[in-house]
Design a protein that fits this description.
heterodimer, A: alpha+beta, Alpha-Beta Plaits, 2 domains, five-stranded antiparallel β-sheet, four-stranded antiparallel β-sheet, disordered N terminus, B: alpha/beta, Rossmann fold, six-stranded parallel β-sheet, 22 helices, 20 strands, 35% helix, globular, binds thiamine diphosphate
Chain lengths: 215, 587
């Protein structure tokens, strides 16, 4: 591979970055289920004064393997370095980073509003339909709605409900599925064999061509 | 609305403090399992300090006296620096014992030092009973979380059944790939617990851990092509060569291509300092040629080094004209500070021979001459005045020169941090690898004395000389007690300029000589040594220098030589902070 090509593939900036903005990246980390690992991963960000937008931990399709989903706004270069630092941790199996169009993602939000206000002033049905929300609890004193979707959708319902005296609002961390991923079963098999297989040849410079970006 | 109040529910309620520590009916205590693990890992020397939470392990150690040599240090920081010195001089993993709470927190500086300098260590700390975790028990501290940023891996053991497998992992992780410190915190109940011991199996594979990236041949080929086409190739190398035990492979590589090679402070001694292709030290106080010509070469080949800011100076003016080939075992180092044109990931013991095989023999004499020319210039302005001064005051450089003459470059030189460190590293001669032990990445004052003790245990056949400033010695001077009690043979050379010299130099050069708190008073070091039963002498003039150094080198057992040097001498050349390497100042 020529040197120019290597440089071009690795150091190209996204259009957002060229405009001086930090794009949003979703980092997916496959790990052992180990006490203390959350801290080890968290301090990789805090040491560099990088704010974590959201963080979710979850089991995976493979028993004993855990999955972190982390959202941050940073340049690709920073995100790539962060992923390498994460992957360097002994108990981390693999770290990926993806842009929004490479993943399917959801966040869930809960909204608590006074029932009387809502019942009087809002066409609840319309609201629910418009925002794909559903009522989880309806009591005399308050009602809890829930939506699941992208940030714009959950934010939209906040706006709609705000005038009616929102009592409480909470949004979950993002969970995301990488569109082109074929899961972790196969990868894990290669990790488990003591002689590392091809899959272990991780090199960002060559793996650029792969559909799913691996570090 | 009900507020949630939850009490901490102790998981382990049973108080096992009354259980006997050693095996009955074939069962074995956790403490015994710890010591068996050390023996299985061929550990002979442990540096440690006892205390309440690690007493069961110390109790077991009482019966292992013949198999394990425990060195009682005077402070846990001294213990961990000694283990670092041991590891650096021997190429093996250093082992440390400390108790919980203050014992463990005293290790933190050494852990940070070992982490940044990639030194393999296994530290075992005692911890309070598992059922007391989180209760603010006596000497309980959250060691795992305190040490997470400064360990390659750490783990808390609360059940003796885990001990063997966890220690096997610890040794494997500490010593493989890019080495580093590992800390294992063992609760007291696990140390006391009797369990069915199933023997010890070494760890050779962890599924989530890939110590060595696999080498990609196409990158080696690409790198070879760049080097073969280069008119002005320049090799810069770090400790990776020493850690990878690839000294021979590296020498073969530079010799085949006639490639000029400069070392970082951590890479020093990987090739002998008199190697014809060795062009000197990189960095802030490194040699003139290597710094200036970094910004002149056309291909920069970095081997096992991490482009520390003390090496690169201003990054946006660092080797911008050059194509960069970076060989490293740690993928996260590639592109971290300097973008690589061709990254060669892998163990340099494998990649260097592959690269050498593809190199064309070249002469590069014109390019090498440039280094020689710069060396001449540096000699005239910096080196000659330092090594052959005309003033009455002694310089640090002439002391090192005298030492070279007497040890012939065969000694292990351990330095502390400051001007004396830079001067020692600039002028000391090394014939053998692993001969330069210094705190490179962290710059820890107080490192040298305990590290020298450890180095002597790691390389007992070598003369070990610690070179220390009058400031740094006082940070860990209590380790003279360790020397006294063990009788270890360490030569201590204090270069006393009556200042915290390196800080004073900056104050002189950049802060209008406002010597804010850098004027430091010292005790009579020779008397202090004497109180510890260590022979010593103080000299201040040129006439007695050679004899005094000879007396020190020839002395049977430890010796402290205090040399009074010029108070306000500066180390040059110097790349001022924020400047490019080619803006290096000769005075
Ligand atoms: C633990 C620690 N504290 C502070 C410093 C900052 N520091 C770097 S060099 C230096 C002066 C060292 O003085 P001395 O030991 O007398 O050596 P000299 O520079 O005079 O050779 C100081 C204070 C440090 N490196 N480490």
């Amino acid at each position: 591979m020529s040197e120019d090509k290597i440089k071009a593939t690795v150091h190209s900036l996204s259009s957002l970055e060229r405009a001086g903005l930090r794009p949003e990246y979703t980092i997916t980390v496959y790990t052992e289920n180990q006490v203390g690992l959350l801290n080890r991963i968290a301090i990789i960000f805090s040491r560099r004064k990088i704010n974590v937008d959201s963080l979710n931990t979850s089991p995976t399709e493979v028993e004993s393997v855990h999955r972190f989903t982390i959202v941050i706004n940073e340049t690709e270069e920073v995100v790539r370095k962060l992923c390498r630092q994460i992957e360097k941790q002994v108990d981390v199996l693999k770290a990926f980073y993806n842009t929004e169009d490479e993943i399917v993602w959801q966040e869930m939000a809960l909204y608590k509003v006074p029932t009387d206000e809502i019942a009087e002033k809002v066409k609840v049905e319309r609201l629910l339909r418009e925002y794909g929300a559903r009522a989880v609890v309806i009591r005399k004193d308050y009602t809890v709605f829930e939506t699941t979707g992208h940030r714009e959708e959950t934010d939209g319902l906040i706006k709609a409900l705000e005038p009616y005296g929102m009592i409480e609002f909470v949004r979950s961390a993002r969970i995301a599925i990488i569109k082109d991923s074929s899961g972790f079963h196969e990868k894990l098999k290669t990790y488990e064999s003591s002689a590392p297989g091809d899959e272990l040849v991780e090199n960002g410079f060559l793996n650029q061509q792969e559909e799913v970006f691996t570090m | 609305m009900a507020e949630v109040k939850e009490l901490i529910k102790p998981e382990i309620k049973e108080d096992v403090s009354t259980l006997p520590p050693c095996g009955i009916d074939g069962a074995v205590s956790g403490s015994v399992a710890v010591l068996e693990a050390l023996i299985a890992e061929d550990v002979e020397t442990i540096f440690g300090y006892p205390g309440g939470a690690i007493m069961p392990i110390y109790d077991a150690l009482y019966d292992y006296d013949a198999k394990l040599n425990h060195i009682l240090v005077r402070h846990e920081q001294g213990g961990i620096h000694a283990a670092q010195g041991f590891a650096r001089a021997s190429g093996r993993t250093g082992v440390v014992f400390a108790t919980s709470g203050p014992g463990a927190t005293n290790l933190v500086t050494g852990l940070a030092d070992a982490m940044i300098d990639s030194t393999p260590l296994v530290c075992i700390t005692g911890q309070v009973f598992a059922h007391l975790l989180g209760t603010d028990a006596f000497q309980e501290t959250d060691v795992i979380n305190i040490t997470t940023p400064v360990t390659k891996w750490n783990y808390q053991v609360t059940d003796a059944n885990e001990i063997s497998s966890v220690l096997a992992k610890a040794f494997y992780i500490a010593g493989s790939g890019r080495p580093g410190p590992v800390l294992i915190d063992i609760t007291k109940n696990a140390q006391l617990q009797l369990f069915d011991y199933k023997g010890y199996t070494k760890c050779t594979h962890i599924r989530s851990y890939r110590p060595k990236p696999i080498v990609r041949k196409e990158y080696v080929e690409e790198a070879a092509k760049l080097i073969n086409e280069a008119k002005k190739p320049f090799v810069i190398f770090g400790q990776g060569i020493i850690l990878g035990k690839a000294e021979k492979e590296f020498a073969a590589f530079i010799e085949k291509g006639n490639l000029p090679a400069a070392w970082t402070i951590m890479g020093m001694s990987a090739i002998p300092t008199h190697h014809p292709l060795g062009v000197g030290m990189l960095g802030m106080h490194g040699n003139y040629g290597p710094n200036v010509l970094t910004n002149d070469c056309d291909v920069l080949i970095a081997v096992g080094m991490r482009f520390d800011d003390r090496v690169t100076g201003r990054l946006d003016k660092y080797a911008k004209q050059a194509k960069v080939i970076h060989l490293d075992i740690d993928p996260s180092e590639i592109d971290k500070n300097v973008k690589a044109t061709v990254p060669v990931w892998g163990d340099c013991k494998e990649t260097l021979p592959m690269l050498t095989a593809l190199l064309n023999k070249k002469d590069n004499s014109e390019w090498l001459q440039k280094f020689a020319d710069h060396a001449k210039e540096e000699a005239a302005t910096c080196i000659t005045p330092e090594l052959n001064p005309t003033s009455d005051e002694l310089t640090m450089g002439e002391v090192i020169k005298t030492l070279n003459e007497l040890t012939g470059g065969n000694a292990i030189i351990v330095t502390d941090v400051g001007q004396h460190q830079m001067v020692a590293c600039r002028y000391a001669k090394y014939n053998n690898s692993k001969s330069n032990v210094t705190s490179g990445g962290l710059g820890t004052m107080g490192f040298a004395l305990p590290a020298a003790i450890g180095a002597k245990f790691g390389a007992p056949d070598k003369t070990v000389v610690a070179i220390i400033g009058d400031g740094g010695i006082q940070m860990t001077i209590q380790e003279l007690g360790t020397i006294m009690q063990t009788g270890v043979d360490v030569k201590i050379m204090i270069l006393n300029n009556q200042f915290l010299g390196m800080v004073r130099q900056w104050q002189e050069l950049f802060m209008e000589k406002r010597y804010s708190f850098t004027n430091i008073q010292s005790p009579d070091f020779v008397k202090v040594a004497e109180a510890y039963g260590i022979a010593g002498k103080k000299i201040s003039g040129r006439p007695g220098l050679k004899d005094a150094v000879k007396t020190m080198v020839d002395h049977k057992g430890s010796y402290l030589l205090e040399v009074m040097v010029g108070k306000e001498n500066n180390v040059f050349p110097m790349v001022p902070q924020g400047c490019s390497v080619s803006e290096i100042r000769l005075k």
